[in-house]
Amino acid sequence: EVQLVESGGGLVQPGRSLRLSCAASGFTFDDYGMHWVRQAPGKGLEWVSGIGWNSGIIGYADSVKGRFTISRDNAKNSLYLQMNSLRPEDTALFFCAKEKNKKGQSDAFDIWGQGTMVTVSS
Amino acid sequence: DIQMTQSPSTLSASVGDRVTITCRASQSISRWLAWYQQKPGKAPKLLIYDASSLGSGVPSRFSGSGSGTEFTLTISSLQPDDFLTYYCQQYNTYPPTFGQGTKLEIK
């Protein structure tokens, strides 16, 4: 079964850091681009960051550029999001998502994890 | 960044109705558009990709059309499980961007 499982969310004070992980299974992880998408409470979907299948493409939303870093460890079938200098407006449910096609440049997201909640508050 | 605008934001309809949701891109995205369905608090589900291709396991009452800057998602006969929120997303140009969502409500 193709599956993504996020972890690492929690309650953190403004200005602190958190590292999210996404464990992939059921597919050849290093063939696919991966992304992080977040959803603030009661709001819509916001793309946060993406990394190509070979890490050749890495992108960030303007709202997180310079504070968040995406990475992947293909040997561990895992995706990560290092989040520094967290702000209250970063409070959201964070999803990881897999691109639909192998070794693509950009694609729809066909598999999503269940999400991990990040709450930034003092 | 490419802006995606969905309309309407909320749509009231009844079981059995045919409904259409529109998504407009701020510049041409060819056919690189997806539609997602989301239950509250759950992960989105891919319904349509490449503007008109049906996602895996998606019922045939869902269909997508369009190219360039204007796209539609049509549900031919609403079922009770369809009263959820729908998002469009462009993936023609980095960064990928989502529409603001359309909430489908029971009339």
Query: How many β strands of chain B by DSSP?
Result: 11
Shape of chain B, please? Answer: globular
Largest sheet of chain A: 7 strands, mixed
Q: What are the secondary-structure elements of chain B, in order, as H or E?
A: EEEEEEEEEEE
**Mean pLDDT over the residues of chain B:** 97
Q: Percent range for helical residues of chain B?
A: under 10%
**CA radius of gyration of chain B:** 13 Å
Q: In oligomeric terms, what are we looking at?
A: heterodimer
Terminal-residue CA separation of chain B: 36 Å
Strand content of chain A: over 45%
Strand content range of chain B = over 45%
Shape of chain A: globular
| Protein chains sharing the most extensive interface | A-B, 24 and 28 residues
Describe this structure in words.
The complex is a heterodimer of chains A (122) and B (107). Chain A has strands at residues 3-7, 10-12, 18-25, 34-39, 45-51, 58-60, 68-73, 78-83, 92-99, 109-112, 116-120. With 122 residues, chain A is mostly beta strands. Chain A is globular and about 40 Å long. The model of chain A has no long low-confidence stretch (mean pLDDT 96). Chain B starts with a strand and ends with a strand. In chain B, the strands form 2 sheets. In chain B, strands 2, 4, 5, 6, 9, 10 and 11 form a 7-stranded mixed beta sheet that branches. Chain B has a 4-stranded antiparallel beta sheet with strand order 1-3-8-7, with no helix packed on it. Helices cover 0% and strands 50% of the residues of chain B. Chain B has strands spanning 4-7, 10-13, 19-25, 33-38, 45-49, 53-54, 62-67, 70-75, 85-90, 97-98, 102-106. Chain B contains no helices and 11 strands. With 107 residues, chain B is mainly beta. Classes of the chains: A mainly beta (122), B mainly beta (107). At the A-B interface, strand 5 and strand 10 of A face strand 4, strand 5 and strand 10 of B.
